[in-house]
Amino acid sequence: MLALIRSEWLKIRRSVIWLLLLVSPGLAGLIGLFGVREEQPGGPFPWLIALALMTALHAMLFLPLLTGVYAALVCRYEHAGGGWKQLLSLPVTRTRVYIVKFLFVMGLVALTQLLFLAVLLLIGTAKGGGGAIPWSELLGSVGRGWLACLPLAALQLAVSTAWSSFAAPLAVNVVFTIPNMLVANSADYAPYYPWVQPLLAMMPHQNGYDFGAFTLPSLTLLSVVMGSFVVFFLGGWAYFARKAV
After folding, report:
1. CA 196, CA 179: separation in Å to the nearest integer?
2. Integer CA distances (angstroms), 152 to 35, 67, 97, 101, 130, in order
3. How many beta carbons lie within 10 A of that of residue 146, not counting itself?
């Protein structure tokens, strides 16, 4: 397993993937910087409002897209020049290969979430809100967003291992991400739509703040996320275990 982890690290350490990590936190940060105003001049920084505004762009659009991009990139090397045959000819199991690739996708998602949090903290601190940081709400939002990406990462990894084309999985991801705004307003369908689950999970709904249709019971969302993750991961793993290379 450690040899596989080192191998994956060597493949991505000099790739464009590190620049992609900055895209969503950076653009969301511009919204927080220019779109958030103090409720009263000289008053405390509205952390949860800033979190909601930044999340609307980050988790509704870029986080689902980036999850798909990460999955496609960790499989790109193997799709080129018979890479799957070379990798699977080594004394490694397909299960370990699949698990390691999934861990790398979720690790990249975690880095994206941490950068998002860092940008939010920098903006709030720069605007005078450093003394009243609601750590539990901010960390909870970032953590829930990461968990909500589990089924999406599992699904996108399955698609990326199945299709040799780098563009095809990305195109599918874009097509299913675009309807997020409409789907998110449906309490009936939103919890079951993998591409909108990060948005629902990250939206703050504590301390009197309520963002309407985007707020769902955490237990309901968590059960759906974990259930769909198990289904997508096992389905992708079963396909990969039998995939002809």
Report:
1. 9
2. 29, 7, 19, 14, 34
3. 20
Taken in order 157, 162, 167, 173, the sign of the CA dihedral is negative
**Which tokens sit at 218?**
């955490």
Task: Report CA-CA distances (Å) from 195 to 59, 203, 237.
Answer: 9, 14, 20
Q: Name all contacts of 115-120 with Cβ < 8 Å and 24+ positions apart.
A: 115/21, 115/22, 115/25, 116/24, 116/25, 116/28, 116/54, 116/58, 116/142, 117/142, 118/25, 119/25, 119/26, 119/28, 119/29, 119/32, 119/54, 120/28, 120/29, 120/32, 120/47, 120/50, 120/51, 120/54
95 burial type by CB count under 10 A (0-12 exposed, 13-18 middle, 19+ buried): exposed
4's tokens: 């596989």
From first to last of its 245 residues, the chain has per-residue pLDDT tens of: 788 888 888 888 888 889 999 999 999 999 988 888 765 555 678 888 899 999 999 999 999 999 999 999 998 888 877 788 888 888 888 999 999 999 999 999 999 999 999 999 999 888 876 567 889 999 999 999 999 999 999 999 999 998 888 888 889 899 999 998 888 887 778 888 989 999 988 988 654 444 444 555 566 677 888 999 999 999 999 999 988 76
Indicate the pTM of the whole model: 0.90
- What gap in Å lies between CA 161 and CA 183, rounded to an integer? 27
Q: For residue 109, give the nearest of 47, 201, 38 by alpha carbon.
A: 201
